[in-house]
User: Fold these one by one.
Assistant:
Number 1:
Amino acid sequence: QVQLVESGGGLVQAGGSLRLSCAASGRTFSTYNIGWFRQAPGKEREFVALINWSGGRTYYADAVKGRFTISRDNAKIAVYLQMNSLKPEDTAVYFCAANRAPFTTAQAMGVRLRYDYWGQGTQVTVSS
């Protein structure tokens, strides 16, 4: 019932900023948690950020805490990831994903949680 499409990726120099968008469709989307994940070439997928259905609760991986901000716009059925102070190690394909688990469960499980829906990904490249 949920379809996700990421956009906003691109090439940026270290220290720069990008804002990623996760556009969603589906009547039940507002009840889902949305997570951002990333996967670099030759590396395993890692958790980045999480937001609950209301946007009132968020959680970040330590690697991005203080630099990235996740937000939600229910009117537009979209979730955003504002990325500031980007580093070369942030280079990856970024995915958004939706799940219906309790927020605390999604927070605790991170990448281990089997999300119900995934987008196609958007490439973020940070040059030094």
Note: The chain has a mean pLDDT of 93.
Number 2:
Amino acid sequence: QVQLVQSGGGLVQAGGSLRLSCVVSRSIFSFNAMHWYRQAPGKQRELVATITSGGSTNYAVSVKGRFTISRDNAKNTVYLQMNSLKPEDTAVYYCRVTSAVHEDWGQGTQVTVSS
């Protein structure tokens, strides 16, 4: 069983920044991609950002240019740097790792952006 431990959420004013971290309990080289999702109250969970094992990244249109996903292979950690935050970014954020035969999710962390 792979464990993903998230940290870094909290309350921030609009225009502010937060960095989320997701520490994986084994080498992230074993996964072909790592992702951040979010789920706002009353809404479906949506994909925010993806980084592949090769380092390619992809972002939802709503966060492109404001959020940056990155990975530290030595620390088995994936990050989500969130800048210029907006109230509509308020949600529970989840990390997820995927391989050809496996997936795991983090426990979720609340991000609240006040106007």
Note: The radius of gyration is 13 Å.
